[in-house]
Structures are given as structure tokens and as C-alpha cells.
Amino acid sequence: MWWISREWAEMSSFKGFPAGKLKQTPVPDQVFCELLPAIDHLGELKLTCYVFWRLNRMEGDFRCLRRSDLARDKRFMAGMGTTPEQAELVLDEALQRAVERGTLLKVSLPGADAQETVYFLNSPRGRAALRAILKGEWRPEAGANPPPDLAEDFPNIFELYESHIGPLTPMIAEALREAEELYPPAWIRDAFRIAVENNVRNWRYIAAILKRWQSEGRDERKDREDAEKTRRRYVEGEYADYIEH
Description:
Number of strands: 3
Strand content: 5-15%
Number of helices: 13
Radius of gyration: 22 Å
CATH class of the largest domain: Mainly Alpha
Structural class: mainly alpha
Shape: elongated
Strand order of the largest sheet: 1-3-2
Order of helices and strands: HHHEHHHEEHHHHHHH
CATH topology of the largest domain: Arc Repressor Mutant, subunit A
């Protein structure tokens, strides 16, 4: 059962903000000046912060969230209740409170089986999107702009290095910053995972994997090989010079 997971238990203790450049989420001053003093429900507060983060990482002029988008984010939902059932109830109450407060705008879209509820931030763009839907001029396409979830945004390259290799040095931090600019986050996480699985905790080795993927492309079939084949491919083969035995 994913709810009481080891990953979540380890994440419950915050280890502080890491070194290096961090992603930022812009939040209007009205959140602190008007909404924060008025919100007296923890679920609504979490939802409000989460909506700003998630919409900021989506693309397009009109950005919206479905209830199903929220409920599918396991890391977010794990913080909404001690059980999945309780988290679902808290989510529904938080959404209702946010709509009643005016933070979110809600509209129901008729579907093949049942109506689907879509939520917009109560911003100029959100209000424009709502008017377009009500006039029949626009409709959000399901799955056209899948929003990220918290698990996809965590951890960053500096946290991965400190967790799996060791303390940061100025030289390593600069190399990590350059890699963060060059490679997709998923590649970086996978390269660290391969290093950990093969017990090769060395940045030069990880950097060599990333460079190979960039120049030749990723081979998903090989990435699914068993641990022993992967170890031979990376440790005894072309990357052997990068490994400290």
C-alpha cells in the first residue's frame, strides 16, 4: 500500500534547503496579506499553496486543474490525511472552501459518462477562461497539458548528490549547476539511480552516463536490464576509467 510508504516517512523530516539554484514559485502578495489571515482550515491552506505551485509549472495561456489531477498526486494527498479515505474528504472540503472564499473558480463540463469539475485560479486569465467556457468558445482538453506532481519535482540534483555521494564542494556544486542546465531532471535522477544500484558513487561516472545519453540517446531496453548486466555495461565497460575502485 503506497500510503504509509518508506519514501513518505523519510520525507516527513525536512532537512533544510540545499545549496545551489532552486526553482521558485511566484505568489502574489494578496496571498499573504488577504488569504493567509483569513484561512482557518489546514487543508484549504495546503491546497492554496499547492495550486500556485502546480499551475506555475504548467504551460499554456489557460491553466486549470481537475479534481482527479489533485487526487492522483500521492505525495500531496499523503499530507491531507492519515488514510486515503480521510485525504479524499479533506480534499473535497478544501476545494469547497477555496471556491467559496473566491481563491478558485469552479466549472462543470459535461462528459460522456458524467460531469467533470475543473478549477481555475481566480486571476484575470482564470476568469477569461471561465467566460470562454460558459460562452462555448473554448473547452480544456483532457490530458492535453498534464500537470506535474510533487514527486516529479523532488529531489533536485544537489540533494541527490548529498544523499548518495557526499558533501558538496564548490567545484562539485559548479559542475552540478552546469549539469542541471544541460540535462532533463528525469535523466539526472536515473543516472544517480544507476550509480547507486551499481555502488559506484562517483560524480564523474554519473556525468559520463548523462553525456552518453545526450550524444547517443537513451536506450530504454538496456535501462530495463537486470542489475548484473547493467553493472557490467557501466562498470566493466566504457565507464570503467571513471570509477574509483
